[in-house]
Here is the input.
Amino acid sequence: MANNLRSRITTLCVGLVLLTTLVSLLSFWWSTSKFQAEKVQQNITVAQSVYKQYLKSKESLLLTAAKVLTADFGFKQAVATRDAATISSVLYNHSQRINADLMLLLDLSGRLVSANVNAQNFADNLQPLMDELLNNSEQSSFVVLNNQLYQVILLPVKTPRTIAYSLVGFKITSAVATELKSLTGMEVSFVAQLDDFATSSLVSQPDNFQPIAYFTNKTTARFFAEYLTYENEQIALPSLQSHPITLLLSADLTSSYRDIEQLLLTLITLAVLTMLFGVITSSLLANNLTTGLSQLAVIARQFAKGDYRFKFEGKKQSSEIETLVNAFNNMGNDINKREQQISFQAHHDTLTGFYNRSAMLDLLAKRLTNDARYTLVAIDIKGLRHINDKLGPQVGDGCLIAVANRIRQFSDELGGFHARIGGDEFLTVYPCAEIEQVKCAVADLLKQLQLAYKVKNLKISLRFNAGIVQYPEQGTKADDLMRRVLIAVDAATTSQQSLHYYQDGEDEAHLDRLIMLDELKQAIDDDNGQLFMTYQPKLNIKSQKIDKVESLIRWQRKDGGWVSPEVFIDLAEQSGLIVELTAWVVETVIAQIADWSKKDIHLQAAINVSAQDIAHSGFHASLVATLNKYQVNPSSVTIELTERDMIENEAQGIKALEDLKTIGVKISLDDYGVGQTSLGRLKMLPIDELKLDKCFILTLHESQKDQYIVRSSITLGHQLGFSVVAEGVETAESLSMLHEMQCDHAQGYYLSRPLKAQQLEQWLEEYQRVH
Here is the structure.
């Protein structure tokens, strides 16, 4: 029982009693200090009431005197007749009767007419003063005149209209401040800082006395520190807005400090005696506790350093301490396990156990030495997304694990290491010196990977693309090698090759594409003329009129270089920028249609869009909004899509096209004949126009097979209710044959190359003149 921690806590309670006593004493001291502070504040409040009553009585006296003066008939008659002697006499006599220090008579323009004192002490024109005082009718204000503070009131002299103003005032001197001090028990100061005037009740004033600075900063030395001598309250007096005057009430805190210090000495004495007793008793208890707790502190420090093997060593302790020690040991084991798990997860892919991308970069940086040679193989699984969509993510994850196991088996045998660097991308690195060894090893790896997999009782065949980079020939830094091997696998995917060896210059070409992509985005955002539209006319073969054009985008970079549309449009599609680019094209073309309409040029313009545009949820709404913005009829716009776009997004594409047809937009199927559109699918598509690919038209007059294909396509299109456009017309013979085949429209260089809007307008004018 003697070692029980509970009995020790009972003993410690004695110390808590002492602590409670000390807290009580401190609370008593704090309450006393608060009481003193409240008392001082109450005194200040009382002083404010006193000063207000004092000044109110003065204001009442001023008002009475001013009214008596302005009501005096003889005075008003003297003012009306400008009898200076009488005015001066009345002002003087009246000031003597009420002990007024100041009596001035001002004309309506604020000029001084007469005064009971030397008029030379005042400005000739007191209109600014008079104007402000008139805003406070029958109320006194404090003003500084001739470096002297007055409480004044301004009243009009009426006969019955106002003919002058009388200004009556009492001088505010140190005697007034002293009188208020006797009533309030506080130092009283009147301060007009802008006029550099101050008067105070303080008896002993230092040189260059400034009341606010003095009373605010004055300190007194006490037991523990320097404290402010005065508690101050600044009160704004009624005064001119441009010349504010403040009343400063300053309560002397010296006596309060003295009372509190005497109480504090008593409290400190009691606290010291109480704490001395508590220290003696608690030290005996602490001596028994510190040994075990110190050991536990040592264990905690070792845990913090990552050493979880440290064990408790000490004498027999209380049962509570022993329980705590066991808990510490268990905690150390648990933390160690979690740290290892967290460390593994931070550097490894949780699904396959491979290194993750960042860990692979760190490992490569350590392994790449001058005497080493490595082959990096990036492997991309083709079509894994479709497996996830159709068979579920569990099957997809099973495929990833199975592929990882085969990569691990292959790479481990060669002494390599591997990582999962993307959702469906792996990287394996193994030492390999000769190029023939590299080719054989990669061929063996792909051969193993392409064998069928059994996942969830399903037999699944996977296809792969691989990119290869060699160290040190094709890079010496880990991040460079990683980037280049990914470029290589992307090249394999793009070119539909199973294997692609990185070629010198591909990295630079990749960076050039990134720069080009950035410039393209900037050109779209700035709309600075780098991007512009051209329009290729379409001939209505039957009417021989130009009633349609195809809108074609062009890009000339800042350096003057031209970028092929196939290049930058493909780049925009790969980066997701195609939606912004198409939005720019739609805006530009519809604005141009509206401009042509104002010029009485009526053309139906075709706009090429991609699968991403059709799939984008905001495309339809944006098109409608743009048509409304420029007040263009939807039938003036034709949306052109390729067969490839329709096939890849058939269900979604058909729904989007049906929505477009609902609002009146025309739909054209571009590059017809070279894609994979079956007749069954063709009849389901909500299109208005077939556009025959130019490969059938360029040599139409020379190739009988092309003639068969074009003729049958035109007939089929007409039977399905479509109009037919032939692009690539470059000879008169081809155009003549299309006319004979009853094709609806033709476009090509035989008619015109794509032209800017202004050039097209000139071309149309010339065409109409000739035809």
In short: Residues 5-71 form the longest helix (67 residues). The two ends are 121 Å apart (CA to CA). Confidence is low (pLDDT under 50) at residues 1-6.
